[in-house]
Design a protein that fits this description.
With 85 residues, the chain is mainly alpha-helical. The protein starts with 6 loop residues before the first helix and ends in a 5-residue tail after the last helix. It contains 4 helices and no strands. The protein has a single domain, classed as Orthogonal Bundle (Cytochrome Bc1 Complex, Chain D, domain 2).
Length: 85
């Protein structure tokens, strides 16, 4: 089972990666840019596995680049306190 199959597992996975990035000194600006790049990749290359991912994919598909960056920033905020460590 992939972490993309379950919304809570996906958020935990992202939260753990966020903790790692912050612990290694990555700036918030770089983290938000990476979140945008990951969101763009997922939107183009990965089929949504659950209804939450479908909503994000639908929003991403109609959003401008600025709005996509806002969506990515919101995902960072969502998982900031959601890591398993």
């Amino acid at each position: 089972m992939s972490v993309l199959d379950n919304w809570n597992e996906w958020k935990n996975f992202l939260g753990d990666r966020l903790d790692q990035a912050q612990n290694e000194g990555m700036s918030q600006q770089v983290i938000h840019q990476l979140a945008y790049q990951i969101g763009d990749y997922l939107a183009e290359q990965v089929q949504p596995k659950n209804e939450q991912e479908r909503v994000l994919a639908d929003l991403w598909s109609v959003a401008s680049q600025e709005e996509q960056q806002a969506i990515a920033s919101c995902m960072v905020k969502l998982v900031e306190n959601n890591s398993t460590h």
